[in-house]
Give the backbone structure.
Amino acid sequence: NAGVTQTPKFQVLKTGQSMTLQCAQDMNHEYMSWYRQDPGMGLRLIHYSVGAGITDQGEVPNGYNVSRSTTEDFPLRLLSAAPSQTSVYFCASSRPTSGGHLNEQFFGPGTRLTVL
Amino acid sequence: AQSVSQHNHHVILSEAASLELGCNYSYGGTVNLFWYVQYPGQHLQLLLKYFSGDPLVKGIKGFEAEFIKSKFSFNLRKPSVQWSDTAEYFCAVNVRGKLIFGQGTELSVKP
């Protein structure tokens, strides 16, 4: 299994440009999520999905869109990049426990995004 | 506001010293608790988790954590750290399907 994969690893954008960060998992996990990591702020949840066709907002959703057309893929779209979106972005996936709890999340290697 | 707080931003220890990293959360009701570790240049990995049962949880690499419900705490401990434990440590709480992270604690272990 490749686990959780993310592309690209690095990206530089100009303010106002759009792009899509790709995330895929081959573990048949229902739950997928996107986080951004900024120094001194830990990881903050952007959007998450509990299954194909279902997405919801996390702590910091503004400026980001997601969709979940398949179980495997969960792309994150920046429609109009801003310098405040300079960050490291992590995708993660997990499956629920039998009690409906959120189980261990498996993280991808991250995408380092710089917006000039 | 609901939050997860890690008291120490940067901890510096010598090898063989004992470690305790604090984590407090402000959510009521049922929570699931996690500690993740991020080694330099790597992505996050699970150290341990608590769902229910024995409040003393053992994880990988000799780490353990104690859930104290009355104090809303889930502190991470290790009796004797090694240089290879140098990393950033994150506490996280699952609240209604959302995983909320603390700010992280950077641990530096001097050989």
In short: The interface with chain B takes residues 31, 33, 35, 40-45, 48, 50, 58-59, 90, 92, 97, 99, 101-102, 104-105, 107-110 of chain A (CB under 8 Å). DSSP finds no helices and eleven strands in chain A.
